Amino acid sequence: MATIIFNAFSFLQKKLKSKNLEYVNAHLSIERGTTARDLIHQMHLTEKEVEVVMINGKVGLLDTILQDQDRVAFVPHGTPGPYRVMFGFKNKETN
Question: Structure pTM?
Answer without folding.
Answer: 0.84
